Amino acid sequence: MSCNYRGSFLESDEFYATSLHILSILQAPIHIFGIYIILKNTPKSMEKVKFSILLLHLICAWCDFFVSIISTPVFLFPASAGYVLGILYYVMATWLLCYMGFVSIGFVGPVTNVGIREPL
């Protein structure tokens, strides 16, 4: 099995970056609406976890924004390699963007365990 590059626009990095940028434009109002729903329409019975839900939503929105606009990563499989196409490519080194991505994703784990306690 071989993979042939035909040079079409659908195979280019420009199409990948443009499609992610368009998706981020569509996702921004949805994330803002989600914040509104969490803040205004959370039932009283869920008041204790309202902050956790909001924090998880904000971190997931940040990760979405980071992947679609800031870094726009391109992964090269099966090698553990890749490069970035985002707007911070021109400002920061690639290793720093990778570090920011791993740290951003690493925040999701501890937030999901906030408020969950082991029974004594």
From TrEMBL:
Keyword Transmembrane: yes
Protein name as it appears in the record: Protein CBG27282
Native organism: Caenorhabditis briggsae
Record's keyword terms, sorted: Membrane, Transmembrane, Transmembrane helix
Signal sequence segment: none
Superkingdom as given in the UniProt entry: Eukaryota
Transmembrane residue ranges: 20-39, 51-75, 87-108
InterPro entries: 7TM_GPCR_serpentine_rcpt_Srh (IPR019422), Nematode_rcpt-like_serp_H (IPR053220)
Keyword set includes Transmembrane: yes
